[in-house]
Task: inverse folding
């Protein structure tokens, strides 16, 4: 054992959690530490009998003090381990997508054994997003590993808001939207950060733009791919409302699926402009070209409450309504109210597609809120489907379970 290794001992409850493969060790679970640690340092956790328990990335400024990389028998975290670790994540996705889909997640944080780090592919662009400052000292090592394993034209760095101040204080400074790598083949205007030009990628044969520099998440909501495909199968002959539409992903799929009209509803003019461009990218599909596409810039709750318009298919996919546990009860009430409003906008024989990305609200709580809204409407309905995480976004522990959708068909 190296003399100056960062060593921690933790509470009995935390030992149990680590042995159960929970990937987070919280600051209040640390009972002893042999010295002050630095962000990104490997921290070795011992049990009460002074036996090796786990090793992870230390973050002195986060409530999640250690992000576990490995638990069980002692091993060495070296270059070969990182290479094998990356290969495991890539192997899980090797057979998931064909040439019709060039946008998907390659590494999904803790659930792939890379806690606080995600990696998305958008055609020839890789977007690396960090949720903990513990990865910042290892960026050069990670980029070299990605370049060796994943041929690409560029690698873009995205930083969660909470670690941006720490990244800006580092030497060298790291910035959200920073270009970490650009190959000679990738030196094209469409990839120029200064112009803010989006990256174009394919999903199920459709083309979309991703604002990898400044957009939400890594530039697009890749986790809704399977639900977009389902909406396409339900859209034929229907008037579709896509509330909280962002860049119109559900809408483009609905249009290809023979929707008569599609209305994108969002508060952001920037998002609606992106939706229009995504429709323009897919005009070679005759069904998209002939579908009437409308945009409405408004608060979705207020518009749904006041509008007299009726639709045959309503998609409600709001941003998270509960970022912390104290907001959970209010979020459940908001989901019930939102879906009540959405059901009011449904015509006879309409379909409601309701989603939640709030990890603080469980799937059971969310589904029950939507069902309550449906029951209170007094209309006859049936449950068509429920969905959870797509295969490239696995949920390996409870706190990672955020995405859920429910499909209800109404008869009156």
Result:
């Amino acid at each position: 054992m190296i003399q100056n290794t960062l060593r921690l001992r933790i509470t009995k409850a935390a030992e149990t959690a680590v042995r159960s493969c929970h990937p987070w060790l919280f600051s209040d679970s640390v009972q002893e530490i042999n010295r002050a640690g630095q962000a990104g340092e490997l921290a070795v956790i011992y049990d009460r009998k002074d036996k090796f328990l786990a090793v992870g990335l230390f973050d002195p400024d986060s409530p999640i003090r250690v992000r576990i990389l490995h638990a069980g028998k002692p091993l060495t975290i070296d270059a070969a381990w990182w290479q094998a670790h990356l290969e495991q994540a890539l192997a899980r996705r090797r057979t998931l997508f064909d040439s019709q889909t060039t946008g998907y997640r390659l590494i999904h944080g803790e659930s792939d054994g890379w806690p606080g780090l995600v990696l998305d592919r958008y055609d020839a662009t890789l977007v690396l997003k960090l949720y903990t400052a513990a990865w910042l000292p290892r960026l050069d090592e990670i980029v070299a590993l990605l370049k060796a394993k994943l041929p690409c034209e560029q690698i873009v760095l995205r930083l969660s808001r909470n670690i941006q101040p720490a990244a800006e204080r580092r030497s060298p400074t790291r910035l959200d939207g920073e270009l970490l790598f650009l190959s000679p083949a990738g030196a094209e205007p469409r990839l120029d950060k200064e112009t803010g030009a989006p990256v174009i990628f394919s999903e199920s044969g459709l083309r979309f733009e991703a604002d990898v520099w400044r957009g939400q998440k890594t530039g697009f909501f890749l986790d809704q791919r399977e639900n977009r495909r389902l909406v396409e199968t339900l859209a034929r002959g229907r008037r579709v409302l896509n509330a909280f539409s962002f860049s119109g992903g559900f809408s483009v799929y609905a249009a290809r699926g023979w929707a008569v009209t599609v209305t994108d509803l969002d508060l952001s003019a920037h998002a609606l402009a992106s939706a229009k461009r995504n429709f323009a990218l897919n005009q070679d599909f005759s069904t998209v070209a002939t579908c009437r596409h409308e945009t409405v810039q408004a608060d979705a709750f207020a518009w749904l409450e006041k509008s007299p318009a009726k639709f045959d298919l309503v998609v409600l996919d709001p941003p998270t309504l509960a970022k912390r546990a104290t907001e959970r009860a209010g979020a459940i009430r908001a989901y019930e109210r939102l879906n009540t409003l959405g059901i009011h906008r449904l015509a006879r024989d309409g379909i409601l597609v309701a989603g939640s990305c709030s990890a603080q609200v469980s799937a059971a709580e969310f589904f029950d809120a939507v069902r309550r809204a449906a029951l209170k409407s007094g209309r006859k309905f049936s449950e068509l489907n429920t969905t959870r995480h797509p295969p490239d976004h696995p949920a390996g522990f409870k706190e990672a379970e955020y995405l859920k959708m429910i499909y209800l068909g109404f008869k009156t």
